[in-house]
Amino acid sequence: MKNSPRIPMPERNPRERARTFDEVKKGYTEEEAVGEAKRCLQCKKPLCMKGCPVSIDIPAFIKELSERNFERAHDIIKNTNSLPGVCGRVCPQEEQCESLCILGHKGDPIAVGNLERYVSDRNMGGHEDTKMPSVGRKVAIAGSGPAGLACAGYLAKRGVAVTVFEALHEIGGVLIYGIPEFRLPNAVVQAEIDELKRMGVVFETNFIVGKTASISELLDEDGFDAIFVGAGAGFPRFPDIPGINANGVYSANEYLTRVNLMQAWKEGSKTPVLKGQHVVVMGGGNVAMDAVRTGFRLGAQDATIVYRRTEHEMPARVEEIHHAREEGVDFELLANPLELLLDDEGFVKEVRCIKMRLGEADASGRRRPEPVEGSEFTLPCDVFIVAIGTKANPIVSRSTKGLETNKKGNVTIIDDWGRTTRDKVYAGGDIVTGAATVILAMGAGKDAAKAILHDLGLNED
């Protein structure tokens, strides 16, 4: 059994799911989960843990799962991971824990993410009050995305009073506005947040740290002992091409926020979104895949990715690219938009692109794309979505004296534990690194929580 093939997770039919927001992957049955868990070799020196940014004891939880000790498996995961239902769905396990699994040398690695999701889903909805005795300290967190929630969970588990301030009217940050429900249902995020509330974490929405109250006011007047800044990187980048300000052009952030957070896809929604017939997305990351697949679900006749390198260089997860292809997304690889052509009313109607070829490697290690002279072509387009990255939100840094940033506007940290140039202020996640993965942001939040506990003279365990 240990060397048997990996048990695949059932998925919805591509033709059916491409027009709905129902979750693509259906989840394991109990027998499938236990069967997959029994493939684990239980290595004495498990390499998989080295690939986990939040240090889940992976062999231990899988062993409990293989013996059907589901609650114990859940407890092991929750000891280091506040959001297992989220991580089980959106973490790039193929680049982290699963990439180091010894079984992967001669076959399929253990499906760590699928098992984590099963354990989390099975235990979702518990209603026990898990609030720890107070240690007499309180910490503020700016931003309720994955970094902030991970930091909050780690601190609350050790008896620290935590208040999370969120600028939007819903909690969850990029988890709730940026990732479509066919990949991460909002209900899963809400269930994880509810558990943090039962641990005593307090959430305040419609509160912009740096506007509603400054960091100095939170520290000096409201008595917080420390602040963690996990405000993310929500400022979109746009290409400098003619027509980019036309009607029908969105940043991926705005497009996905309208659909995911504001539920613009539902009939009768008060939030408008243009439901084009020809959707073109510029970019090759997970956000680009989310946007182009969302375009299909809003009724597009065709939806196309335009990416200036090859599929090999795409930063998106292989699974997301695969799902997009299954659902009928077209890929214009080695191509780059040059101009948006407009109709008489100022709406985009076509994208003029140029073919590219790969030259020498650039600073990122990827081969630099170069235009092929005379290779211009056009694509029909009535919705053009830009998904080429985001920048850090500057509100906190600009309003906080002594909080340094780098030339990209990201908050500067002075060690690996999220300490910043301002005393009592810590930071982590996208606002430090630029746009990255959910699990890396969670790892940064957890590391900063450890530093906060240390600096407050509290035990980390």
What does this structure look like?
The protein is α/β, with parallel strands linked by helices and 461 residues long. The chain has three domains: 14-123, Orthogonal Bundle (Fumarate Reductase Iron-sulfur Protein, Chain B, domain 2), CATH 1.10.1060; 138-234 and 392-456, FAD/NAD(P)-binding domain; 237-386, FAD/NAD(P)-binding domain. 30% of the residues lie in helices and 17% in strands. It has helices at residues 14-17, 30-37, 58-66, 70-78, 84-90, 112-123, 146-156, 174-177, 186-198, 215-220, 252-261, 286-297, 318-326, 395-398, 430-433, 438-455; strands at 138-142, 161-165, 202-204, 226-229, 235-236, 249-251, 278-282, 302-307, 330-333, 335-342, 348-361, 367-371, 377-380, 383-386, 390-391, 425-427. The strands form four sheets. It has a five-stranded parallel sheet. The model has no long low-confidence stretch (mean pLDDT 94).
How does the helix and strand content classify structurally? alpha/beta
Determine the CATH topology of the largest domain: FAD/NAD(P)-binding domain
Mean pLDDT: 94
Helical proportion, percent range: 25-40%
Terminal-residue CA separation: 37 Å
Would you state the CATH class of the largest domain?
Alpha Beta
* Counted beta strands: 16
Reported CATH architecture of the largest domain: 3-Layer(bba) Sandwich
Assembly annotation? single chain
Radius of gyration: 23 Å
Specify the CATH homologous superfamily of the largest domain. FAD/NAD(P)-binding domain
Biggest sheet strand line-up: 3-2-1-4-16
Cα shape: globular
Number of domains: 3
Strand content: 15-25%
InterPro entries: DPD_II, FAD/NAD-bd_sf, FAD/NAD-binding_dom, Helical_ferredxn, SudA-like
Organism: Chitinivibrio alkaliphilus ACht1
Protein name: Glutamate synthase, large subunit
GO molecular function: iron-sulfur cluster binding; oxidoreductase activity
